[in-house]
Amino acid sequence: MASRLNPYLSFDGDARQAMEFYEEVFGGTLKLNTFGEFGQQGTPDADKIMHGMLETPSGFTLMGADTPPGMEYTPGNTFSVSLSGDDETELRRWWEKLSAGGSVAVPLEKQMWGDVFGMCTDRFGIPWMVNIVQQSS
């Protein structure tokens, strides 16, 4: 798997509708995962989108999610740049450079879905998400 760079959009409870709209616009394959699928069953956020990914026939990748519980939705700051792939050395090197002199919101570490993930804002104010896909054994 090659590394990929793509926009990651944040929504205030309407990620499902937005991502389905983008699927209608661009076509392709849409995959949606809810917070309930990853340990938050029975909560008010169980049906909200934790992660959505649209891959289009034109080669576009668009990701999006509802703002996680406990994080503030701030209109105007509703995007991040996402780096993902399975080349752990490369992605960790990029993470170190991007987070240096910036701020780390989520440390780069193993997450409940099995991948290594982190969120930072670089020294220029650009938010980044890094996801290192873990190979299944």
TrEMBL record:
Keywords: Methyltransferase, Transferase, Ubiquinone. CDD domains: PhnB_like. One of its GO terms (biological process) is methylation. GO terms for molecular function: methyltransferase activity. Pfam families: Glyoxalase. Residues 4-130 form the Glyoxalase/fosfomycin resistance/dioxygenase domain. InterPro entries: Glyas_Bleomycin-R_OHBP_Dase, Glyas_Fos-R_dOase_dom, PhnB-like. It comes from the Bacteria. This is 3-demethylubiquinone-9 3-methyltransferase. It comes from Streptomyces resistomycificus. The lineage of its organism: Bacteria, Bacillati, Actinomycetota, Actinomycetes, Kitasatosporales.
